[in-house]
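Aggregate trends can hide what the representation actually does to any particular protein. This step matters because it turns folding into a mapping between discrete strings. For completeness, the protein is quoted in full, as a sequence line and a line of structure tokens:
=====
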Amino acid sequence: MSDEERYAVRCRAAYVQANTEVILSHASSLPFEGAPLWGFNLSDVHLTREDGLAGRRERGVRRHAGKLLAGDVLESHGLLMTAPIRSSLEVTMLGSAEAGLVVVNHFLHRGDFDLDALRARYDETMGHWPNSLRTDLVLRLANPLVESVAESRTEYFCFRRGLPRPVAQYEVRDGGVLIARLDFAFPDLGFWIEFDGRVKYERHLKPGESPADAVLREKRREEMVAELTGWRCLRITWADLAAPDALEHRIRRLIESVATERSRRRRAS
């Protein structure tokens, strides 16, 4: 099993063996809600007590005390767990802002709730919880257009490095016909970012198409976008996100290069 699958098994076991009324909460609800666990410490199982007593931590299980409101709990896979809207807020106070943003964007994109509902639930009772300032940051960065862990991390990278905020899922059209939907576009700066991962190519394979065919199709798509917009493309991978200094240098160098080229064209005209 993967690390995530083993964690889900441990979460179920801790829930079943609990001798008080509990629900799976925080990151421990995510595997059963189809949400990513990227960036979270999977050493502890998180349970929220329903008896109103104080929380505690022992033998890899953290029991939290918190006020549960109507709509905060659901039943799935034979387990009681926090609903996505509450789980999203809890994990922003548990892990890093980046990991929290990955989860919030996942549920927003899936349509479990919208930003207004998420903000209202936060303001209702959770604004005073420990590390809630991190939650406030995540809510300001959250974007329902972002489709994947990689895209959430890329947008967070731009924020942390002081880069302009990109336009997610930017549509390029030719005479009203949709040609491409770009991961992230910087229209004013004249370039766009595409995240390259194996899953991306495998997921979009057409019937009878090989991965090599998909790569060639993507290359033709890139060429068409460049012809229609005059922009340049920067492709990044998981390895780039793991080397943020180098990635920032690449992006800033590209920004400078495009600006120089535009300036030269203006002088020539």
Remarks:
- The longest helix spans residues 244-268.
- The two ends are 62 Å apart (CA to CA).
- The first strand starts at residue 22 and ends at 24.
